[in-house]
Task: structure prediction
Amino acid sequence: MAIIKFSGGYPISGTIAAGYGYPISGEVASADTYLMARQHILWPYMATARSAEFALGTTDAVLFRNMMSKGTGAAGHYIEWDDLVLSPGDYKIEILGYNGDGYGIWHVSYDGADTGARIDTFATGGSAGYNKLQSDTFTVATKTRGTLRMTVDSANAGSTTYAPTNKYGDMVVCSISKTSTGDDEGESADDLPWIVDVDINTLSASSAGWAYAVHQLYYRGTTIYSDGVQGRWVEFQVWLPAGTWQLTQVCYRSTAQGIASITLDGGSVVGTIDNYGAAVYPIKLTATGIVVPTTKLYTVRIAADTKHASSSGYGLEIDNLEFRRTA
Amino acid sequence: MIYAPEAVTLYPWFAPTKTGGALVITTSQRCNGYWQTSSQSDSKAWTESLRPGTYTVSDFCATTSDAGISHLSNGGADLGTVDHYAASPAFNATKNITGVALTSGSIELAADTKHASSSGYKISSTFVRLTRTGE
Result:
């Protein structure tokens, strides 16, 4: 429930429920309610940081595309995401990833502290393979915007292959979800998500000239690409809290690509990403300083209206988009 | 004013509560696959923070001739259905329920019924998207 707080210089002080309409004035903290997300889906390729052992997988048939540690070093291979806002309560981690002999135990830390939660990815025989694996439940005591770190830091005693490390790690995608009820209210837009993923399969509208392609080696398993004609565009419905954001595009860069112009709700261009350059796939290209004035659902349009002077076309080939709040 | 997510993508394999199901990997389906349940009343449910309002619920799925009908609820009665049946199976299908009033709480889809011509209750879903469309 939203609470209006008032104090200072008045013969009364305290709190009253919003909407009572008392004939007084004072400092109104907020009559708004900010409901914090209860589940966050985290993609290893979009992690804030990860140790050098991790690289995109290249061979396995898997949903989306996996990210695998080579297991060549000592323990401590990690993937982490910062600016993860969690309300107080109990949580569990689930991952899609490979489990088998030689695969280690993920240790879960949040905001710099070991939560005690673990995911043991050791398995043998018919249990080995790509599976959904989950951790123990752990508690977040107070509302925090912190870093979630997943570290392959130990191994099951039965793990025998890939000696001497026995600590391979494999992750396709990670979920952190709240298992307890209540305590979901935040205090401001700062408590709303700082990472907003845009799956390209949630396309809401597009111009002519686009097609999807599917391959297990595409990041997230899918790409959407244009025919290279000037002015091609795609749109997505994206809910964004107020703030300043950067948009990262996972894509194919080449000498035939255009410049992606980003608009919100049909307004002026708020950022651009030049997709021209030496051919690289996949690559993360970013537009920064995108100001989102109010928290709401936006129509985000990506349009190939212009191009680098040296480019031979206006193509775009996008695997995924991610907004990350920077302020 | 309630500030809460107005567009959410829900992945079946990460549904906090679910019955039945397994991952199916196929490059015929975008994202390389889906979560498939097979039995009547197999379900998946997420507990979500949502801004109250009217939503479109989109199930990105594969339709089959042995598919069931998903029933959507938000902590109460059925709010709509998605029929996953097709005489000619198709990958990369998007099935929508429009104009559904949703609020924070449990979002559940359960294969409670089936098309008269269907031979089963399979649901093959890659993700479910909730998008707010109005008050």
Q: What stands out?
A: The radius of gyration of chain B is 14 Å. The CA atoms of residues 23 and 35 of chain B lie 5 Å apart. The mean pLDDT of chain B is 96.
